[in-house]
Amino acid sequence: MNEYHHFLRTRRSIRRFNPDPVPASVIDTILATATFAPSAHNLQPWRFVRIQSDSAKEKLGEALMAKMRGDMEAENASQAKIQERIAVSLRRIAEAPVIILLCRDETAIQKDEQEEEIMGIQSVAIAGLQLLLGAHAEGLGGNWICWSLYAQEATKKALDLPKSWLPEIIFFLGYANETPPNAVRKSLENLRITI
Ligand SMILES: Cc1cc2nc3c(=O)[nH]c(=O)nc-3n(C[C@H](O)[C@H](O)[C@H](O)COP(=O)(O)O)c2cc1C
Q1: pTM for this prediction
Q2: What is the number of the ligand 1 atom nearest to the C-alpha of 15?
Q3: To bridge 171 with a disulfide, which of 10, 11, 67, 100 should be the other Cys (CB 3.0-4.6 Å)?
Q4: What is the CATH number of the domain that holds 141?
């Protein structure tokens, strides 16, 4: 196995960061690398929001937590459990050295067809992976967080995003303060057929 495969296989989700700041130039490099992802018709539907200020973090947290609270109440979770989950989530937002919200521009589509929309979503997801790999190349850890998908309109409104930008993925990035356990992967033998 050559070093590139080793590099790809050693990217892991990192959820705890040390507080060291990440230079802006490093973040720029990572985002620029993400834009080299392939995309359907080369439409490049990805858009990036760097959430840096305390006030922006607070607005993001409020938008996401309102939805989280509503969902947990609908599932009859206890108030104590809701409070605990929200406190942990808000702390993660507050402490994340870098937060990137990856959006899809819903106008970056060739035809108004469901398949084209799916291709746009697929393209943004690939840019998301490329972003995580770019972070890995810079010695940073990162984590893909799906919260914004459950609160797209609230997130858009809270951050006053352009109308056509749909929040899809949140990334927390920073220098790792944990060593994740070994990657758990299903055996390829159970995942493929040859025909
Ligand atoms: C579509 C998607 C959604 C994810 N959502 C979350 C999330 O909301 N919170 C989280 O901690 N990790 C999330 N993850 C990270 C996965 O849990 C992680 O990739 C998986 O457990 C494999 O671990 P690894 O990335 O270290 O290889 C998500 C990953 C993907 C691709």
Answers
A1: 0.96
A2: 11
A3: 100
A4: 3.40.109.10
